[in-house]
Amino acid sequence: MMNRHTCYQSFLRLFAVTCLAAGIQAQAQEDEKAPASKIEPQMAMLIECFELDHRAANQLIREYSPKAANAGGLRDHLGGMVKNGKAALVETVWMRSRSGQRAKSESIRETIYPTEFDPPEIPNTLGVVPNPVKVKVKPGETATAQAVLPPLAVTGGGGSGAEILMTSATPTAFETRNVGTTVETDAVLSNDDGLARISLAPEMISYHGRQFYLRPGSENVPWGVDHISSPLFYAMKTSLQMKAKPGHYNLLGMFTPPEKPKRKVIALLKMDLIYAN
Question: Per-domain residue ranges for the chain?
Answer without folding.
Answer: 42-120+166-274
